[in-house]
Amino acid sequence: MGKKVKKEAEPPPKDVFDPLTIESKKAATVVLMLNSPEEEILAKACEAIYRFALKGEENKATLLELGAVEPLTKLLTHEDKIVRRNATMIFGILASNNDVKKLLRELDVMNSIIAQLAPEEEVVIHEFASLCLANMSAEYTSKVQILEHGGLEPLVRLLASPDPDVKKNSVECIYNLTQDFQCRAALQELNAIPPILDLLKSEYPVIQLLALKTLGIITNDKEARTTLRDNQGVDHLIKILETKELNDLHIEALSVIANCLEDMDTLVLIQQTGGLKKLLSFAENSTIPDIQKNAAKAITKAAYDPENRKLFHEQEVEKCLVALLGSENDGTKIAASQAISAMCENTGSKEFFNNQGIPQLILLLKSDSEEVREAASLALANLTTCHPANAKAIAEADGVDPLVNILSSRRDGAVANAATVLANVAMQEPLRTGLQSHGVSSALLGPLRSANTVVQSKAALTVAATACDVEARTELRNSGGLEPLVELLRSKHDEVRRHASWAVMVCASDELTAVELCKLGALDILEEVNLSVSRKNKFSEAAYNKLLNNNLSLKYSLTGYLSSSNIISDGFYDYGRINPGTKLLPLKDLCLQEPSDQRAVLLVNSKSSDVSPPPSTEGKSSDVGYGRSISSSSSFRRASKEKTNTGFGSPTEEKSEPPSGRTTALSKGTTKERGSRLLRAQLVWFIL
């Protein structure tokens, strides 16, 4: 046999590139490799970039600067599964960077990312694609894109994934999307509530928490609450509250229950299963402030429905709320006060708080927190409305002083509430008398000047309630409160104008205040208001008439008549008929005017005079230049007999010729008659 000859290895083809192993330590080099046509290089480059991005936010920003995002987006649709998987993993990490998110929206890659949620894809692709969507869904524009590209349906499907990371990312993305009402409606169509409820059974607290937060938003819709009830969701929530180990979920669970309690059928279900008592006991006995606060908020939401209030009252919810008022946490105090405000619509609840609750609320009026004071004052305002016993209880519990102090608060709501309580207290005469010692009228000066229409309205209403007494009107007048009150008559707000008119009507009960109001222009403003069909009201008309009745001289000059109830007194004068809108000068100013050929002004004065009029010839008057003539009561009677009309004459009676000098005429009588004449009414003619 011949010797074997060793076969030589065939050389590689000349057109094939020899394999090259490269070790790169620069991210920029690896980014360049993303444009390679070789699948293996692409896969390894993506893997290296993923590890680099995991190290921190600075690296993500570096990749963005190097231009890695755009070539990576092309790899999301690559034919090779490994390349596609690695690229998806990178975007799951990079999408937490705000600048990357912005660029991804501009590149419009949402459809490519959502495509990675297809059922046939690997679990790891589902994980990072859902993570990318969860990060991007925090932005409103991205939410719109996810919904437009049909991303909600695959996300709901992935809630049933066996992988906890996929579940967590999917429910987080859905939670972000539910901030938009369109998404909530779409979730209802996709029947998303049952799979979300299933997440409450998860062994991972973060998944349970996200599920509760999502339910807390979508159950704001009535249809969602019905679906939750039909799927025994309330039972799941009550069980969470009963489990001490799940105390980190109690706050969110209470938020969902709060929404459910707005639904009457759900509330009845909770009450029938004993869940309502458990809820109230849980709220009262919990040591966690946020839990107590959310429980009180749940009661507040539900108590806006009359039937719900009735059920709550039967369960003695008032005891729980009074206990919560004693919490050390301001948030709990506020929530409890708001719940009491809502429960006040129930008469039985109002009566309960008369003995328990009002003293605690008065203590809260002295709190350092303005929000607490506002919430407490709101509760007291509702408690005293149409309930004299509660108003009396506030006065007896020394609640007036803190209420007066709140009138100077910086929070408009607190000021309006305090004014309402004071108005309710002032409705009772014995209590109203006591208010004056606390300086209520002076304290209302600030609220009357407020720019807030609610505060203006409540302040004017309080003036109307408190100014029934002379002392209150005097204090208001002396403190300068009439001026801002008159200005409120010009308000374009109907309620403000109505309450201001009411207050003016009450203040015009005495002549001094009525005259001052007229000086400030109240009569002119009311006259203008009453000419408008849309602006006038019964109070504006009544206030106008009240002002005239306390200024009979003006009323006579404007209308030409006085009613049988109008009794003239000293100081009444007949100027003559004036046109609407014309100001009637006061008597003091008329005395200072030079005489003219205009009609004389008649003055009634029954006061005795220390100055004896000079004697004159019987039955005649002496002309002494120009001035005024004084005629005694007998002359007045004699002149009256000559007139054809009786009672109060028209301001347009026939004028006498103006004398050319000062004339003083005395009636027939002796010196001994003078004393009695001076005590009678005198007719004073001012020749102007």
TrEMBL record:
ARM repeats lie at residues 150-178, 356-399, 480-504. Keywords: Repeat. Residues 253-525 form the ARMC5-like ARM-repeats domain. The keyword Metal-binding does not apply. The keyword Metal-binding does not apply. Pfam families: Arm, ARM_ARMC5. This is Armadillo repeat-containing protein 3 isoform X10. It comes from Acinonyx jubatus. The lineage of its organism: Eukaryota, Metazoa, Chordata, Craniata, Vertebrata.
